[in-house]
Amino acid sequence: MGTYILKRIMTIIPIFLLAAFLTFGMIHLSPVDPAEAYLAARHIQPTDELLAQKRQELGLNQPLLVQYVNSVIQIFQLDFGESYVTNKPVWEEVSSRIPATIQLTLGSLIIAILVSIPLGFLAGIKKNRGIDHFSRFLSFFGASIPSFWFGYLLIFFFSVKLDLFPVEGIGTWEHLVLPSITLALPLIALYIRLLRASVLENLQEPYVLFARTRGIHEKNIMGKHVLRMAVSPMITGLGMNLGKLMTGTIIVEEVFSWPGFGRYFIEAIFNRDIPVIQCYVLLAAGLFLISNLIVDLIHMYIDPRISRKGRQFQ
């Protein structure tokens, strides 16, 4: 098992290097000159002399291979350069905003798990009953309504009309409720469908029939066996969405004026702040790879057959 985990970790490195190469290539293939973008962000009129000087400072006059190698070395040192707007280290700016995004991500994940697991499980074991119809309606509603519109609806009813929660900002748990619900709704819609379908599939498996034949109580069959096996696709969905959540909270952070990483990324796009954009893309890739590794390890714990298959292929 340890060898399998080590091999999975080692596969992350070349994939991340490929992501860094693609990001580096897109930046250099872009019609936007990094030196010109820097001067524009600082509201400096670009001249040929200033452009040449800035290209020299940014190392843009070096061969592309040298620039790429230097970029990779700096990335592994968490050095993404300096922001064109604030002239501060990008990682310093990002690390000060990541906690707010993590807080929002964890809040939405907790809500999504607490709502989707019981609803999806009950919808599967009580097919075509009231709870199943309600779960399907909620999943269709969550999948179809745009996040920004749902966020504004929550603000209108719970902040403007009822004055229960703050409209914007961060600081207390009341600030976290509405943006977390807004971010969690699409996840709830997805996880309910995944869990319901998985429960229905597992109910047809032979081990359920054998357990009933042996006289095992129905609650034990459902709770200890069916739910444990059915939750596997949902865990996969969590792994696929964790990195996306961490770096994809842009709309929600804008709607609720949440001072997180996503809002900072939007500002970087408008300012053509290339080091910040590069940091965002690579951080998204890294989070996606790490979250999928964590999901694989959780799957090995839930289903020991995966660990045995991993040893067979070593």
Automatic annotation (TrEMBL):
It is a multi-pass membrane protein. Pfam families: BPD_transp_1, BPD_transp_1_N. InterPro entries: BPD_transp_1_N, MetI-like, MetI-like_sf, Nickel_NikB, Opp2B. One of its GO terms (cellular component) is plasma membrane. Keywords: Cell membrane, Hydrolase, Ion transport, Membrane, Nickel, Nickel transport, Transmembrane, Transmembrane helix, Transport. Gene3D superfamilies: MetI-like. It is found in: Cell membrane. GO terms for molecular function: hydrolase activity; nickel cation transmembrane transporter activity. Residues 98-299 form the ABC transmembrane type-1 domain. The chain crosses the membrane at residues 12-29, 102-125, 137-160, 172-192, 229-252, 280-302. Its main location: membrane. The complex is composed of two ATP-binding proteins (NikD and NikE), two transmembrane proteins (NikB and NikC) and a solute-binding protein (NikA). Belongs to the binding-protein-dependent transport system permease family. OppBC subfamily. This is Nickel import system permease protein NikB. It comes from Salibacterium salarium.
